[in-house]
Amino acid sequence: MPETGPDLRIERPAETVPQLVVRRVRQAILEGTLSPGRRLTERELMELTGVSRTSIREAVLHLQTLGLVETSGRRGVRVAVLGSDDVRQLYEVRAALESEAASLFVKRATDTEVLELVKLTRPSKSDNDQLASIYHFDELLLAGARNALLASTLAPLHARIHALRRLSLSIPGRRERSEQEYRDLVAAITDRDADRAAQLARLHVDAAKEAALAAIAKLEEERASGS
């Protein structure tokens, strides 16, 4: 029998280096560590992440595609700054797509997936806890809807909207109202009422839009006053 050679197979990493950079930068934006308008140069990103210029450039292109960063100056980017019109348009599209996702989830999700959504609507102790639950809620909703085109269309919108949610939760009472909206939505999903779920998803997005617009208006006012 021939001698067995050494196993030299290379395991394919779950994520490429640019994908890891995108995930880390995106997380920093969601956590507020990188705030809207924060300028980022290639050199700084290389120092912050410890990866090559080539990987940084590829990651930045993807972050621009997601709408999380935008060009700033000749050789840098900044964390995207969304105005009221941008926010309004994002939420209008989200309302249409997410209501459909809720309806499809009711029709196609398993009982186990429904129970997972129920778990995510338990009262949260902090904004960070709620943001993490919302992030997973979005993922589960799209997975259970079982429509790849809908998921690929909503995913980049969710990336931009999730960055706004920390601002929205700064509006007094918004976190508590948002939690109740999610509980109402999940109750309709549990009852397998597709029409009601779609309606409640749209109502939630409309309420979230108003909170986001209020937060953006406050931020713009602070910038204008120089505070």
Automatic annotation (TrEMBL):
Keywords: DNA-binding, Transcription, Transcription regulation. Residues 15-82 form the HTH gntR-type domain. SMART domains: FCD, HTH_GNTR. InterPro entries: GntR_C, TF_FadR/GntR_C, Tscrpt_reg_HTH_GntR, WH-like_DNA-bd_sf, WH_DNA-bd_sf. GO terms for molecular function: DNA binding; DNA-binding transcription factor activity. Gene3D superfamilies: GntR ligand-binding domain-like, Winged helix-like DNA-binding domain superfamily/Winged helix DNA-binding domain. It holds the Pfam family FCD. It comes from the Bacteria. This is GntR family transcriptional regulator. It comes from Actinomadura decatromicini.
